[in-house]
């Protein structure tokens, strides 16, 4: 193909890798010379707490990408341009300064991203330049998997079946996006030759990832993937037990694009047909593929029903009255800080607070506890997760919360209420996960770690634990809370 643009600019956002990158591939096809930029968006940074692991994750990943660009070209004067400010101002100005005919990026269906991109596209157009967007971070875009009547799916299983019917090697193959990079990457103008900023340079606390087993950048994703693949056959059986190393821990890499979803889905899909594997091992792969399809499912829900950002997917559920006031605020604080007196909930919240990760089973348990034991609005929990999760992704987080609150598409029925104690007994039978994050309960025998308030006084005394002093008493009684919740949701009886 003859390049259409003498100069182009690729704008990286949630796709921090050079391999199998759709926009990069198209930019290299269509441009004779290419620059590469990442913008630290002030409208996002301003809203973050000053200690934010994600900022450090991005900085470290960009630093690796910048070095990879120079290594690819073998020219020290090449690399990544970084800017800080509003992309709406920066991208058009930079495109003009560099003389880029087009700006290439991978698309993003989050409402704020759509508004930002529309703004940038208008400004570029007024300068005679184009914004070209490509599908990259999901397998199927919003309208690629639809029902027979061409409307969006709102139930997962039929969506998944349609997804599996549609999938072909075409959708899973990698873009050879590194092929012409060495020859086409432009030397940086002198003004742009700067080191990639650190979190501290951006006004954030340094070393927020220190002590965490969270490898960053493309190399970090490769490390986690290599560790996970031998465990893939056991995924179905191990994934629900937080004390085990069951899942992949790749979510933050999918969030920032340091791994390609095509590569992961291809590996999973191929493994489901691997005749050298046992049926159980193939099921492990099929279950993991299913999780990757949930990701696509929630992306298309957000794209088609952006109102879910503020409201219930099922509008009738907006009539539910949540607890408010000082007591509700105190319960919310206890939930956030991991001191509800329910050990599995507390351990999970402490895992989130100290690492930025929470196991999927525990996301379901803690979300259900907030909504159906404490009677609090799911949006309060959603916002807390959004602040704390390294892998925070609007579509998946909103989908997960609305699932737990029963307000979402294909959600948990409203009258199904997780019992935090039986969940604990089932999924952390020895209380090993609990004591990892609530070590004060270690002296208790395993069977008492799920509900310490049920231990006999002598058992507590032998463990040297005084409830209310060493570990909180439960902030609510589950049985009573359950009745209250059934009454709260009872207004919906007509709907279900
Ligand atoms: C209340 C709640 C909030 C959540 N918030 C987020 C979020 O902000 N960001 C996020 O990526 N996931 C979210 N999830 C989904 C899920 O918990 C995480 O994706 C998963 O725990 C990440 O760990 P992993 O990479 O080890 O997962 P694995 O089990 O290895 O799964 C592989 C990948 O599949 C995707 N995935 C798995 N489960 C889901 C799911 N239910 N919905 C959508 N995608 C899924 C993720 O990209 C994940 O990395 C949420 C779930 C709930 C119940």
Automatic annotation (TrEMBL):
<dbReference type="InterPro" id="IPR036134">
    <property type="entry name" value="Crypto/Photolyase_FAD-like_sf"/>
</dbReference>
<dbReference type="InterPro" id="IPR005101">
    <property type="entry name" value="Cryptochr/Photolyase_FAD-bd"/>
</dbReference>
<keyword id="KW-0157">Chromophore</keyword>
<dbReference type="InterPro" id="IPR002081">
    <property type="entry name" value="Cryptochrome/DNA_photolyase_1"/>
</dbReference>
<dbReference type="Pfam" id="PF00875">
    <property type="entry name" value="DNA_photolyase"/>
</dbReference>
<dbReference type="InterPro" id="IPR006050">
    <property type="entry name" value="DNA_photolyase_N"/>
</dbReference>
<comment type="similarity">
    <text>Belongs to the DNA photolyase family.</text>
</comment>
<keyword id="KW-0456">Lyase</keyword>
<dbReference type="InterPro" id="IPR014729">
    <property type="entry name" value="Rossmann-like_a/b/a_fold"/>
</dbReference>
<dbReference type="GO" id="GO:0003904">
    <property type="term" value="F:deoxyribodipyrimidine photo-lyase activity"/>
</dbReference>
<dbReference type="Pfam" id="PF03441">
    <property type="entry name" value="FAD_binding_7"/>
</dbReference>
<keyword id="KW-0285">Flavoprotein</keyword>
<dbReference type="InterPro" id="IPR036155">
    <property type="entry name" value="Crypto/Photolyase_N_sf"/>
</dbReference>
<keyword id="KW-0274">FAD</keyword>
<feature type="domain" description="Photolyase/cryptochrome alpha/beta">
    <location>
        <begin position="6"/>
        <end position="139"/>
    </location>
</feature>
<protein>
    <submittedName>
        <fullName>Deoxyribodipyrimidine photo-lyase</fullName>
        <ecNumber>4.1.99.3</ecNumber>
    </submittedName>
</protein>
<dbReference type="InterPro" id="IPR018394">
    <property type="entry name" value="DNA_photolyase_1_CS_C"/>
</dbReference>
